[in-house]
Amino acid sequence: MATMKDVARLAGVSTSTVSHVVNSTRFVSDEIRERILKAVAELNYSPSALARSLKINQTRTLGMMVTTSNNPFFAEVVAGVERICYQRGYTLVLCNTEGDPERLRHNLEVLLQKRIDGLLLMCTEGRSASAEVFGRHPAVPTVVMDWGPLNSQADRIQDNSALGGYLATRHLIEQGHRRIGLISGPIDKLPAQSRQEGYRRALTEAGLPYRQDYVVTGDFEFAGGISGMQQLLALPEPPTAVFAGNDVSAVGVYQALYRAGLRVPQDISVIGYDDIELARYLTPPLTTIHQPQEELCRQAVDILLDRIQGADDAPRLISLEPTLIRRESVSHLE
């Protein structure tokens, strides 16, 4: 494999001059530049990314840790982050945790040992394990994207889930529904807690009772939506509308209602959360709460790059505002 010294020898210049041309760090005359570029082409020379990263103490690589899930929301966020990284001239290295704290610990060690410039976290498991690893690598800039360890040294960008839960429930109330069920996510996850808080606030404002039998703890997955809806249908007085904690759960709700011979929204209205791409293609298209994914991805990457470039202000907490997307899965009751 050709080296910079080989290029310099063939072009008849110093290695420092080759370096200036390859890295565009200093003016070099057109004649010399042309000789160097010709030598580079002849030798098929490729600069060493490792050597360059050691020299500038940056790899222009970001790591991202995500919980493995069937939820398309994660895939859409990862795609958005990768796109922003590419636009900013960075490479993204993705690791899945598989919901396993030990795997989280291992992947964090691997990413940090590979000298990533910064880290994006979108997973909740293994908070103590991650704290232990971060204790050995305190200088790595980190941004938590809603689902992540509550690390006081990390910037955090999160959806205002309490407002989203409130908007979803209030919309059902405005459509005349009084018996409203909730299929939440795991209660150890902050988004699930916050969405339930918004649900409860909307009921209270409308003077409606908070019924514990109408609240089912799900898992933010397809199967959880099915089993949650089945539990609600088994009640002596089932709800007329259901707020699913995310769109994936709502898909499960659709399936449970189909199996029961019930129709959306004629028999039961359904509203979801996240506004994944699939939501608009369901039958009927799903009314849902939109999370500003593009803004989430852009803010996460740009704040992380600010930290990498030396920003030293206090950890930031940025809340993104959800909005209601009206489609056809909610009926109006007279």
Automatic annotation (TrEMBL):
Annotated organism of origin: Tolumonas osonensis
NCBIfam families: PRK10423.1
Pfam families noted in UniProt: LacI, Peripla_BP_3
Protein name: Ribose operon repressor
Keyword field contains Transcription regulation: yes
Gene Ontology molecular function terms on file: DNA-binding transcription factor activity; transcription cis-regulatory region binding
Domain HTH lacI-type: 2-56
Entries under SUPFAM superfamilies matching the protein: lambda repressor-like DNA-binding domains (SSF47413), Periplasmic binding protein-like I (SSF53822)
Keywords: DNA-binding, Repressor, Transcription, Transcription regulation
